[in-house]
Amino acid sequence: MNSADIPVIRKIIQRNKRWDLIFAIAGFLALLLGVLTFLALFVQMAYTGWERLTPEFFTNFPSRRAAQAGILSAWVGSLLVMLVTALSAVPLGVAAGIYLEEYASKNLVTDIIEINVTNLAGVPSIVYGLLALGVFVYGFGFGQSILSAGLTLGLLILPVVIVATREAIRSIPLHIREAAYGLGATRWQVTRDHIVPYSLPGILTGVIIGMSRAIGETAPIITIGALTFIAFLPASPVGPEFPWLSFEWLKSGFTVMPIQMFNWTSRPEEAFQQNAAAAGFILVLMTLAMNATAIWIRYHVRKDIKW
Amino acid sequence: MNTPSSASAASLPPLVVSDRLAKKALRHFKERFIEMLLFGAASVSVLTTVGIIWVLVSESYHFFETVPLWSFLTDTMWTPLFADPHYGILPLLAGTLTTSLVALIVAIPLGTTIAIYLSEFARPAVREIVKPFLELLGGIPTIVYGYFALTVVIPMLQLLIPGLSGFNMLGAGIVMGIAIIPYVSSLAEDAMRAVPMNMREGSYAMGGTKLQTALRVVMPAALSGILSAYILGISRAVGETMIVAVAAGMQPNFTLNPLESAQTISAYIVQVALGDLPHGSIGYQSIFAAGLSLMLMTLSLNLVGHVLRRRYREAY
């Protein structure tokens, strides 16, 4: 190499470093765009809906007069639907995850189940709505009820729960199992006393993320034919007479937060757009709180557990 | 072990195996029963798939008894609720493709840039802060994005493009693209981070800069993962419902022009479900035919993604 080349090489290096810098800035801007969109969305809804965020907004039924309309039936409906969703998806998903990780032998049936779970995660949510319309609403005769909606969302988040359970179980080192088996524990004893407790934080994270997805799902619930104008509450689950528990509410008509928001969004009047903003703000707050909890649990578990 | 003293050791009774160690039929039965139960839970997912296929195919079958498949695929009008009904899927398909295309033009460059930045450029502290933020962005309900498209993005676009209608595929597509950025970026980043460090070190040792390493070493090595991230993004965009239902309009329109309003397949299903069509009518069956088309599209995309991941997987 002769010394005359050195400035040329330096120039090349400098040019390449400049490209590095340009890309780093581009990457940062792209990230910023994502974060700013989120902030814009959040602030815009808070700003537009602020006047409507009064206590009455939570205790009023929807109304034809925008200023008196509230989200009482919507948040109660969301709560009850989420209850059914959790009760159906969590046991099924956790059990399926345990089966695939701890019990299943490597054979064709297991392969089919695994591929199937992966594929289900890619099915558009509205297709779950069609499934529910054909099977739950008309096939089983559950009608357009809280039960149908809860089960639909349960099936929808089942892959999320299964995958989270499997990942949590897979992170438990083999020697824990071997120690338990070495003491003569049966497979179920190992599972119940060791696998499930140790993977609980991971499972919980997955369940919360699944639920936060379910609470914002609109399309499948519209598809099963939920009404958008509900000015009554489902029957109370607790009654004054024996057996004190009533399951009438499962068969009740209902509306949920995202549907209430959709209904207000699709009206042309400015006042209803304000309601939509307020409802959207509450909805985003709910999903944010759930996601933040999940992130927090995951962060702490990752920090605290040392096998 | 309750022998009180060593004196009695000589006079031990003959060795009896504790009955706690005896083989128990009940315990065996319980183990088998639990395994069956867990297997049952695992097969629910298979039943779900079977249910989806059965519902879509059987209702569509009734639909195709009335509407010939050929006219479903070639008719350029979709007017199932009119007096003179036409059932051509093409207008809905055009709407779905146009909005998805706009979304991808937004999501793929931005998502890839973010993935490269997070995986190759950002310091770990930045990454730890930003990744949860992206996850939050992916967790926002799509109806909220729809509201955002309708009340913020489209009015902004109307300032830029005078005469733009209040519902259009451009605004819906852009917001949909932003909504799927987190999916694309997080999967693509995972793929890039899985590339072993020694490949980067080799490139750095040869004098490669960060950008050169990222574009010429890491990205080719992670290509299969990145492509399957794109495919997942496409499949999300095709199946996305609420953003387009709110912001793209509800009129089937056979056009590929994103400045116009049009209806997508998923938005049609929502529109019919909001109305009050009797169970078993042709309108009711038509949403299942629409759903079947949607399902076939996303299924084949997922299959392509699966094959890509398999075929181009490079083992290190």
Automatic annotation (TrEMBL), chain A:
Pfam families: BPD_transp_1. It is found in: Cell inner membrane; Cell membrane. The chain crosses the membrane at residues 21-47, 67-100, 120-140, 146-165, 219-239, 276-297. The lineage of its organism: Bacteria, Pseudomonadati, Pseudomonadota, Betaproteobacteria, Rhodocyclales. This is Phosphate transport system permease protein PstA. It comes from Aromatoleum diolicum. InterPro entries: MetI-like, MetI-like_sf, Phosphate_PstA. Gene3D superfamilies: MetI-like (1.10.3720.10). The gene is pstA. It is a multi-pass membrane protein. Residues 75-294 form the ABC transmembrane type-1 domain. Belongs to the binding-protein-dependent transport system permease family. CysTW subfamily. Keywords: Cell membrane, Membrane, Transmembrane, Transmembrane helix, Transport.
TrEMBL record, chain B:
Pfam families: BPD_transp_1. Residues 93-305 form the ABC transmembrane type-1 domain. Gene3D superfamilies: MetI-like. Keywords: Cell inner membrane, Cell membrane, Membrane, Phosphate transport, Transmembrane, Transmembrane helix, Transport. The chain crosses the membrane at residues 33-57, 89-118, 139-161, 167-192, 213-232, 282-304. It is found in: Cell inner membrane; Cell membrane. Its main location: membrane. It is a multi-pass membrane protein. Belongs to the binding-protein-dependent transport system permease family. CysTW subfamily. Part of the binding-protein-dependent transport system for phosphate; probably responsible for the translocation of the substrate across the membrane. NCBIfam families: phosphate_pstC. This is Phosphate transport system permease protein. It comes from Aromatoleum diolicum. The lineage of its organism: Bacteria, Pseudomonadati, Pseudomonadota, Betaproteobacteria, Rhodocyclales.
